[in-house]
Amino acid sequence: MSLRDIFDLPLSAADAAAVTHYNRATNKLLTLNNDPLEEVTAALALDPSLVMGQVLRGLLYALSTEKSQLPEARAALVAGQALAAGANAREQAHLAALTAWVEGRLQAASAHWESILVAHPNDGLAMFAAHQGDFFLGQTSELRDRVARRLPQIEPDSPLAGYYLGRLAFGYEEMGDYARAEDAGRRALASDRRNTWALHAVAHVMEMQHRLDEGIEWLVTRAPEWSKDSFFAVHNWWHLALFYLEREQWDAALALYDEHIRGTDSSVVLDLIDASALLWRLRLQGVDVGDRWQQLAAIWLAREEAGWYAFNDVHAMLAYAGAGLEEPATALLAHLERTALGVGDNATMTREVGLPLARALWACAEDRHAEAVTLLLPVKAISVRAGGSHAQRDLVSQTLLSAAEHAGQRALARALLNERLALKPQSQLNRAWRARVGA
Ligand SMILES: [Fe+2]
Prior knowledge:
Blueprint (H helix, E strand, L loop, with lengths): L15 H15 L5 H11 L4 H12 L7 H12 L7 H14 L3 H14 L4 H14 L2 H9 L10 H16 L3 H14 L4 H13 L3 H15 L6 H14 L3 H12 L7 H16 L7 H11 L7 H14 L2 H15 L4 H21 L3 H12 L9 H17 L3 H14 L4 H10 L2
Helix pairs in contact: 1-2, 2-3, 3-4, 3-5, 4-5, 5-6, 6-7, 7-8, 7-9, 8-9, 9-10, 9-11, 10-11, 11-12, 11-13, 12-13, 13-14, 13-15, 14-15, 15-16, 15-17, 15-21, 16-17, 17-18, 17-19, 18-19, 19-20, 20-21, 21-22, 22-23
C-alpha cells in the first residue's frame, strides 16, 4: 500500500514512521503550531528520500520571507531535486514551485501552486503556500477566490474543509465582505479551535469594523489557545495592541509590546515587523517609547535581509527612522535603489512601493515632512502591491496624515481624515486626529 499524506495524496516515501512525522508537520503548519520544522527534520532523518519532506522543509524556510533563510531553503530544494526522477507529477510541481520562489520568481511559484490545486483541490500544503504567496504579493482577491475555487470539492465537515474555511475567512475580510468573513472564521473554529488563522481573520473583521470591546474579548479569552506553541502568537498580540491603540491606551499597548511582542527576544522577521509597526503607530501619536527603538533597530541591523522582500525592508526602515540611525537608513536606501533597478517581483515591489515608502519614512525622521507627503501620496493608493493586510497598510495612511499635519498642509490633512472618519466615525483615535489637524 502506498504511503499517503493527511490529504490522502500519495507520497514518494519509503518509511511509514517518517511519513507520520511529515504528517504531523503538515498538521502543525496548517494550524500555525510549533514546531513543523522539528517534525519535518525528524521525518527526513528517518527517510531523506521523502520528496515532500524536502519540499516542506524548503517551504518552511522560503515562506519565512527571510533572505538569511534562503541557503537552508536551497539546500532542501537541491535534496528534493535529486529525488525528482522518482517523484510523482504533483511532487514535481511542488519542486518547481519551490524553485521559482527561491529564485525570486514569486508569481511563477504562485502559478505552480495553482496548477497543483487544479489537479488536486485537496492539496492543503499547496493551498497554504499559495495563500501565503497571495498575501506576500498583495493578490488580495486570490485570498478569497483561490479558496472558493476549491471548497465545493472538499468533503464538508472534514478537517480540510475547516482549514480552508479559515483561509477563506481572511480572503473575505480583505475583500471587505465582513459578515461572510466572520461566519467562515467562526465555522472554521467550530471545526478546530486551534485554527489560529481563522481566529486571526475574525480579529481582522473586528478591527476593520471598530468593534474594540469585542475584539479585545475575542483575543484575550482565547489567548490560552492561540498564544501557546504558535509561531503566529506575536502577530495576534499585535492585533490585540491595535485595539488598545484605538482606545488611546498607550500603556496597555506598550505592556503587550514588552511582555509578548518583544517578550521572547525573537529575531524572526515576521515578529520584528509587528514590533516595528506598533512602535511607529505610537510614534505617530507622540508617545515616548524610551529606548525600545534602539533595541529593535539593533536586532534589525544584526540581520542581513535587505533586497529580498520590500515589505520587510520597509519595516526595517521604520526601526532605523524611529531610532534616528542615519547610517543604516542611508545604507538601506542605497540597497533598495540597487534592488529597484533589477528584475523580478521584488524589484517591482521595491520600485513601486518599497523604495518611495522607505524614503518617505526616513524623510519623516529628518522632519522633511513636505517631502514625505509628496512621496507617500502616490504610494498610498498602490501599497497593496507590496503585500500585507489592510490593517498593516493602514500605517501608510496614518504616516501620510501625520506628515501632512507636520508639514502644515491642513487641507490635505483634513481630507485624509475625512477618509478615516468615513470608515470609522466612532473612532476615538480619529477624533484625536481631528483635534490635531483643526478639522
Ligand atoms: Fe493580521
